[in-house]
Amino acid sequence: MISPEIEQFEKYYAMLTEYLVTYSMQIVGAIFILLIGLWVAQKLANIVANLMARHNIDVTLTNFVSNLVKVLLIIIVIIIALGKIGISVTPFVAAIGAASLGAGLAMQGMLSNYGAGLAIIATRPFVVGDTIEVKNVSGQVKVIELGHTVLIDEEKVEITIPNKHILGEILHNSFKFSLVKGEITIAYSACSNTAVKLIEDVVNGHELVAKVPNAQIGIERFADNGVTISYRYWVPTTKIIETKLAINGGVYSAMNKANIEIPLPQRIVSIIKSD
Predict the structure, then answer these.
(1) 3 state DSSP class of 153
(2) Peptide bond into 263 cis (omega under 30)
């Protein structure tokens, strides 16, 4: 019952023995080529990474290029090693080409994100730490990957945007700061110059308010019940809420201490009696 299996095993064993005897030196040479090739690929990838780092090229692009060089060299070495032991690589190349075509069609959305990521890294319309707005979404750039970009907004919420939705769109970049607007209305009988000076002291005295660009403070409009003074200043994007609350509280407290009246909305109604 088991004699056919034994004969088949002996047949395969004989074939393997004959192959090892015939190609023993080629196998040793292929292993040697493979080991040397892996070492060279790693060294060359490190050289490329160090060279790009010395020229202050983006870290993401540096890692991508160095890894790409390493993978390409490893593939070339494997093809050479297989040819050394008498294995034809032509069918493998054809199969890889067909599989690559199918994978490319199936993952064209992902590939478009990677292509857009490479363009963003190469052209650098923004870098990590900048505050950008694209497609009505804004935040500070936390990380730039090949497939997506991560923003963090003033509420500490992380927003992930596929890179294909960034490239080619209208992009607003305020760098590391975001603009904050506020306003307060004082009575017409109060001194507007004093109020503006008090607001300037509060805004410029806060440690998170940017010195460049300078804060802008002045009369915004003349309302029905008083003079509206607006103030605009720039703060780090992730510190918007706490800074805005602190500034507004400081402005209100300064007005009260200086006895500057903050009028309530009011309407005067005149009743005319007819004879």
Answers:
(1) coil
(2) no
**CA atoms within 13 Å, Cβ hemisphere of 258:** 20
Q: Per-residue pLDDT for 168 more than 80? A: yes
Dihedral of alpha carbons 78, 80, 85, 87, sign: positive
Distances (CA, A) of 264 to 110, 190, 222, 259: 57, 14, 15, 15
Flag whether pLDDT at 257 surpasses 80: yes
Q: Which helix (H) or strand (E) holds 225?
A: none
* 214/218 Cα distance (integer angstroms): 13
Q: Could you tell me the two tokens for 234?
A: 């720039």
Contact at 8 Å (CB) between 134 and 117?
Answer: no
- 193-241 confidence digits (pLDDT tens): 999 999 999 999 999 999 988 999 999 999 888 999 999 999 998 899 9
Q: Kindly give, in sequence order, each residue whose CB lies less than 8 Å from that of residue 244, ignoring residues fewer than 6 positions away.
A: 180, 182, 235
Q: What single-letter DSSP state applies at residue 271?
A: -
**Following DSSP, what letter does each residue of 173-215 receive, concatenated?**
EEETEEEEEEEEEE-TTS-HHHHHHHHHHHHHTSTTS-SSSPP
User: How many whole angstroms separate alpha carbon 116 and alpha carbon 134?
Assistant: 15
pLDDT of residue 18: 67
Helices marked H in the chain: 3-54, 59-84, 90-106, 108-123, 192-204, 240-257
Tracing tokens 């005319």 back to the chain, one arrives at 272
